[in-house]
């Protein structure tokens, strides 16, 4: 099995991991370094979800053509992921923040019993755009280098 046959799988996953590592570095620059963010974190700059789905759609578009069924599936899947990252997950993060504040302010004795909820779950439009751009650029870099 050659790299060419696995490229549709390997490159998007690699793009997601590369962008997740970049996010880890940007968190570190801000003094917020936590290695668990590499695997168990959502939100932040740039979006690795956006990088992965943009890389997948780009790979499929270049390999199968933008008029193919495969590209349509990859693009619609990508739009759905980006929409959820921007909308649904942002609302979940806000709810986590509000619930953490309620526990902190009204039930301080419960803080050790109830683990804090994740607050950084959604993305801003800028985080999604930068992530998607990085995903496309990673695919193009692989195409140039291979």
What does this structure look like?
Helix 1 packs across helix 5 and helix 2 packs antiparallel against helix 3 (69-86). The chain has one domain. Helices cover 70% and strands 0% of the residues. It has helices at 3-29, 48-64, 69-86, 88-106, 125-145. It has 146 residues and is mainly alpha-helical. The protein is elongated and about 60 Å long. The chain is built from five helices and no strands.
In short:
This protein has one domain (3-87, 122-145).
Please tell me what the overall shape is.
elongated
- Care to count the β-strands? 0
- Number of domain modules: 1
Number of helices: 5
Task: Report the span from N to C terminus.
Answer: 16 Å
Element-by-element helix/strand order:
HHHHH
Average predicted local confidence, pLDDT: 84
Summarize the amount of helix as a percent range.
Answer: 55-70%
In what range is the share of β-strand residues? under 5%
Largest sheet geometry: none
Which structural class should the secondary elements be placed in?
Answer: mainly alpha
Task: Write down the Rg.
Answer: 18 Å
Unreliable segments of 5+ consecutive residues: none
